[in-house]
Amino acid sequence: MWKYLFVVFFITSFASLLPLSAVTAEQTEEQIEAERVRLKTQIVLEEMEIQKERIKLMNQKEEREGYENEAAILSGEISQANRSIRKRSLTIKSLNYDIKDKEGVIGELDERVVREKAGLAQLLRKTREHDDVSFVEIILAGKSFTEAFSDIDRFETI
């Protein structure tokens, strides 16, 4: 362990002396080589940090109480996942009922639209019939003036 710490300290000290710069066309071969050495040093530092993390993880694993504790933890996680799945399943069922309700409302609205279209078609036919009949024909149809004017007024209010 001390060996790793010494190497990390040595490499960190050496790496801090190197400037942080990007490779450009104007750099000399010595600068490029120095940059490569700095990058390799950083890679080694990262590998050492990874190794330290592995050692730390191994120590933590040794400190665990055993497989029973891990099994209990896994069992709890499985139970939690199952409950989450059940919750999603219930949510989906609820949404299916909502969808069926909406389909029923849409069906009723479609029927209403069909009825209103039929009513509008009838109204357009009546309008065309009244437009085809002249005012003189209405008066000569044998109705009184008041009946003819009341028919015209009723039709216009519709």
For this entry, what is the oligomeric state of its chains? single chain
The overall pLDDT, averaged over residues, is 76
Looking at the structure, what is the overall shape? Answer: elongated
Q: Span between N and C termini?
A: 97 Å
Uncertain runs are none
- Structure annotation, total helices: 5
Topology overview:
Elements: H1 2-17, H2 29-63, H3 67-132, H4 135-140, H5 145-157
Helix pairs in contact: 1-2
3D structure, described in words:
- With 158 residues, the chain is mostly helical.
- The chain has a domain at 1-64.
- It contains five helices and no strands.
- It has helices at 2-17, 29-63, 67-132, 135-140, 145-157.
- The longest helix has 66 residues, at 67-132.
- It is elongated, with a radius of gyration of 44 Å.
